Amino acid sequence: LARVLDWHQEFPRARSLLERARTINRELGNKTPELHNMSNLVNVLREQHEFAAALALAEEGLESSRSLTDRWLEAIFLYLLGRVAIDRGDVGAARKFNDHALAIFRELAMPDWQSFSLVKLGFLAVVGGDTASARCYLAEAVDISRRFGGRLNLAECFSAMGVLASHMGQHERAARLWGVAEGLLGTLFSTDI
Fold first, then answer.
1. What long-range pairs does 155-159 form, CB within 8 A, spacing at least 24?
2. Tens digits of per-residue pLDDT, 23-75?
3. Burial degree of 92 (CB within 10 A; 0-12, 13-18, 19+)
4. Which terminus of the chain, N or C, has fewer Cβ atoms within 10 Å?
C-alpha cells in the first residue's frame, strides 16, 4: 500500500506506513523486510526533498545490507545513494554509486535494474557534457528494456534520451521523446486510487 501511495504522490501517508512497517520489522528482528521498507522510505524522503534524511537512511541501509551479505539490497542502496547524489548535485558521487550498482546488477543478471542504472549514467554523462558516453549508456538501456524491461524502464530511457536531445539542441526531437515517455507512464499510473 505504501508503494501505491508513493506512486500517487501521497508521500506523508506512504512515509507513515513505511515508518510503522520498519518499526514492526525491526521489533520482530526481520532485517531483510526492514531493509525493503528502508529502501522505499528513501524514495519517499527524496520526493519530499528531505535529502539529508534520505542520504543517512540510504547509508544505513547500505551498511546493513553488506552486513547481511545481501548483494541485491546492497546494489539497491548504492543505486539509491546515486539518486540522492543526483538530487544534491554531486555528479561525481552519483556516477560512482551508479557504476558500482550496475556492476552488481550485471553480476546478479538483473536486466531491469541494469537499465535503470544505465539511464542514470546516461543522464550523468549528459550533465558532464559527454554526449558520446550518454548515447552508449542510453542505447544499452533501451536494448535491455526492449528485451527484458517493462514500460517504466522504457519511459526512463525515452525521458533521458529527451534530455540528451535537448542538450544537443534537438528540441523538437526532445519534445517527441518526452511525449513518448509521458505516454508510457500514463498507462502505468492512473491518478485514481
1. 155/180, 155/181, 155/182, 155/184, 155/185, 155/188, 156/115, 156/116, 156/119, 156/181, 157/115, 157/119, 157/181, 158/184, 159/119
2. 998 999 989 999 999 999 999 999 889 999 999 999 999 999 999 999 999 99
3. exposed
4. C
Q: Any residues with CB less than 8 A from the CB of 156 and at least 6 apart, and which?
A: 115, 116, 119, 141, 145, 181
Q: What is the pTM of this model?
A: 0.85
Lookup result for grid cell 501517508: 13
The set of cell numbers assigned to 17 is 506506513
189: helix, coil or strand? coil
CA 133/CA 135 separation, integer angstroms: 5
